[in-house]
Each structure stands twice: as structure tokens, then as C-alpha cells.
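Hi support team,

I've been running sequence recovery on a batch of backbones for a student project. Most finish fine, but this one hangs at about 90% for roughly twenty minutes before it completes. I'm not sure whether the input is malformed or the queue is just slow. I've pasted the C-alpha cells below so you can try to reproduce it. Let me know if you need the job ID as well.

Thanks,
M.K.
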């Protein structure tokens, strides 16, 4: 099993690494301190063509698949985790309307219409530099989604009423990253009507400055401060028919069947974890300004360094194996491995960031060094939907027992 990047992947990794270490990292402390959005980082992403990373080549993009995306954003996160995490939301939107939609079953009529609409959206990303947020989290749900739509929780308190030429949208969202910056928000909503709920799931393109869109609330979290994730209210927002990001019913279908979408979040925390390890080695060996090299490293500190490497490499091996399987038809084993990789990343990134501070000593707590920021950012990994650690862990044991009961002939009818 060859897990090395191919030549094209390595080329994109190198571009991302150059941006991350040369431009994003020097700005990261100020962005974190002021809890402001990394506009300059996004300008660099645009200039490098990386806003089109996951746009297929036939539309002028770089044509990266999910696996390649994960390798690229891992590098971006080493420079600034907030930049990487918000970039994830844009790229996931591109993957959903691209390769994920291509693999999803839909009628010929729906597919033809989607092709026309996505070509326009892709061109706007590549030619104009548009980028997307994803306001998926909501304070309420309605109807059958409470029991059926289990992955990631609340999305369909936002309603869409069909009107002439489009939809009238009303709802509330929270933790809306890119709230003061995104060109558009790829927004889930439920169509008011009597059809089965999954057929009524919509994914709509909401301009940030559309009439009826408002943002509120202070943004002063402990970590991921550059994501600027405030509350969003949609009040009688008109969205034209042609601003469907996905055809009706496809969003709900994708979230019920996709095994690997949430792993895009994990790539950010993989980068944070690796940068914490790399920085620790530089800190101890004279590679960081203001930190004298350690003349001797004793067994306590040395064992800490080794333990960090063990954790990084174990997490990478599982994670890379899982994202490489995104091309395959998901089965029980593949889904369980994706969940395991995600939880492994949630645990390990925090553990490595904590160990980095312990190994480097008390001065590592000073804000002149990034280790305390790495730890604060890492804490977000376990509480982010659609797969918080609790949601992913519950899915693992429920699926394991369901599969075993089916194998042993003891499954109950409700399962």
C-alpha cells in the first residue's frame, strides 16, 4: 500500500506549504489576538488559484479530489488553523456540487439542470474569487428530521416557502464561520410542503449582503478566533430558483450516505498537531527566535518528544488510510474506519499540543510563541458538528453492535 502523494498532489502540497509558512504563519498571532478574519490569507489563496482547488479542471479549477484536498489543507493549517478551517467550508461546498453530486443518484433532468447551475457557480469561484461559508448549525429542528437526519444534528429549522421565481427563506443559524467575509453561504433549508422530508431538503446560495440577512453577537472564543463565526438571521430572504446549490433532495441524501465528508474538518487538526510537533523540535534546538537551544535533553523531555511522534504517526496512518477510501463505495468497515480516524484526530491533536507545552516548559505558555494557540485551536476539534466526539463515538458503538447482531441473527426489528 503506497500512501505517498502522487506528483500532482505533491505540487499542490508545496504551493500550500509555501503560503502557509511564508505568509499565513507570520500573520496568525495578530489574527488570533484581534479575532479578525484572515482576509489577506484569502487574497493569497485566490492569487494562487487555490479557491478553485476542488473545482474540476473542465471549469478552470485545479481538479483536486477529497483526498488531495485533505493533504493540501493539512499544510495550510500549519500556518493558520482558522484559515484552514474556514477554507474547508468553501472547499466542501465545491466537492458537494462536484464529485459528491456526480456520485449521487439523481434523475437525468435534475442532473442536467445541476450541470448548468454548477458551471456558473464554478466559474464565479475561478474567475471572480467568490468563496462560500456553510451555515449548517441551527437552534431548532422540525418534523421527521429529528429522528431520521442523525448525522451532525440540527439543520432544518430554516424554512423555504416556494414563491414565484424562487424561495422565501426564514431561519436562524449559529456558529456561522466567515460571517463577515464570505461571498455566499451554502444554506440548508426545508421546503414547506407535504412531500417526504428528504425530497424537501434544499441547499441554497444565500449572498452575504442579500436583503433580510443579518449577523449578530460578539465573537470572542478561546480558539479558532479567526473564523469569525457569529449568529445569522434570515428574514424573508428571496433566493431565485437558479440559486440552488444542489437539486432538491440531494443535500439530505448526501448527508445520510456520505462516510468521509466530516473528515475534511480533521485535516485542519492534523496540520495543527504536526506543526506543534515540528515547533517543539525547533524550539529545543535553536530554531526559534528568542529560545536558546537546549544543551542536554533528559529522558523525561526525550520521552515526551518520542510520545508526540508516536501519536502523530499513528493518527496520520489511520487518517490517510481512511481518506484514501473516499473513492470507494462505503461499507460498514469503511464507515467505521472514517469514524475512528476522526475521533483519533480529535483526541490526538489536543494531546500533542498539550505535550508540546509540557516538553518546552513554562515559557511555552507565553503568547510570543504559538504553542498555546495550537492548544486553544485544537480544543475545537471535539465539539464541531457534524461529528462531535460524542456523535462519532455513539455512531461507532451503535454500528458495531448492529453489524454484530445482524451477523449473529439477533437483530431486533427496529434496527
Amino acid at each position: 500500500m503506497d500512501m505517498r502523494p502522487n506528483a500532482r498532489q505533491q505540487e499542490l502540497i508545496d504551493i500550500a506549504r509555501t503560503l502557509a509558512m511564508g505568509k499565513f504563519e507570520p500573520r496568525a498571532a495578530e489574527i488570533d489576538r484581534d479575532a479578525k478574519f484572515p482576509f489577506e490569507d484569502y487574497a493569497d489563496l485566490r492569487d494562487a488559484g487555490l479557491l478553485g482547488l476542488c473545482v474540476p479542471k473542465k471549469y478552470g479549477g485545479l481538479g483536486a479530489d477529497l483526498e488531495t484536498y485533505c493533504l493540501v489543507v493539512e499544510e495550510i493549517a500549519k500556518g493558520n488553523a482558522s484559515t484552514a478551517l474556514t477554507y474547508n467550508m468553501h472547499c466542501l461546498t465545491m466537492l458537494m456540487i462536484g464529485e459528491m453530486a456526480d456520485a449521487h443518484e439523481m434523475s437525468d433532468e435534475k442532473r442536467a439542470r445541476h450541470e448548468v447551475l454548477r458551471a456558473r457557480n464554478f466559474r464565479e469561484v475561478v474567475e471572480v474569487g467568490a468563496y462560500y461559508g456553510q451555515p449548517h448549525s441551527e437552534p431548532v429542528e422540525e418534523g421527521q428530521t429529528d429522528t431520521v437526519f442523525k448525522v451532525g444534528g440540527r439543520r432544518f429549522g430554516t424554512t423555504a416557502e416556494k414563491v414565484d421565481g424562487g424561495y422565501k427563506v426564514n431561519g436562524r443559524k449559529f456558529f456561522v464561520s466567515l460571517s463577515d467575509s464570505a461571498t455566499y453561504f451554502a444554506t440548508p433549508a426545508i421546503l414547506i410542503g407535504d412531500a417526504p422530508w428528504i425530497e424537501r431538503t434544499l441547499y441554497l446560495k444565500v449572498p452575504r449582503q442579500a436583503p433580510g440577512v443579518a449577523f449578530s453577537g460578539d465573537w470572542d472564543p478561546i480558539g479558532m478566533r479567526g473564523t469569525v463565526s457569529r449568529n445569522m438571521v434570515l428574514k424573508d430572504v428571496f433566493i431565485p430558483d437558479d440559486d440552488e446549490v444542489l437539486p432538491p433532495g440531494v443535500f439530505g441524501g448526501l448527508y445520510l450516505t456520505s462516510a468521509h465528508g466530516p473528515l475534511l474538518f480533521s485535516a485542519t487538526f492534523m496540520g495543527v498537531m504536526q506543526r506543534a510537533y515540528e515547533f517543539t523540535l525547533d524550539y529545543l534546538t535553536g530554531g526559534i527566535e528568542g529560545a536558546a537551544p537546549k544543551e542536554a535533553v533528559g529522558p523525561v523531555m526525550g520521552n515526551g518528544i518520542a510520545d508526540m511522534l508516536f501519536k502523530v504517526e499513528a493518527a496520520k496512518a489511520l487518517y490517510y488510510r481512511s481518506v484514501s477510501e473516499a473513492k470507494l463505495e462505503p461499507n460498514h468497515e469503511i464507515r467505521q474506519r472514517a469514524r475512528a480516524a476522526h475521533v483519533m484526530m480529535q483526541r490526538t491533536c489536543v494531546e500533542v499540543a498539550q505535550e508540546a507545552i509540557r516538553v518546552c516548559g513554562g515559557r511555552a505558555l507565553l503568547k510570543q510563541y504559538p504553542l498555546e494557540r495550537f492548544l486553544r485551536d485544537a480544543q475545537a476539534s471535539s465539539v464541531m458538528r457534524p461529528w462531535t466526539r460524542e456523535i462519532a463515538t455513539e455512531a461507532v458503538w451503535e454500528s458495531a453492535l448492529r453489524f454484530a447482531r445482524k451477523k449473529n441473527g439477533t437483530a431486533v426489528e427496529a434496527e
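--
Follow-up from support: It reproduced on our side and the slowdown came from queue contention, not your input. The mean pLDDT is 93. No action needed from you.
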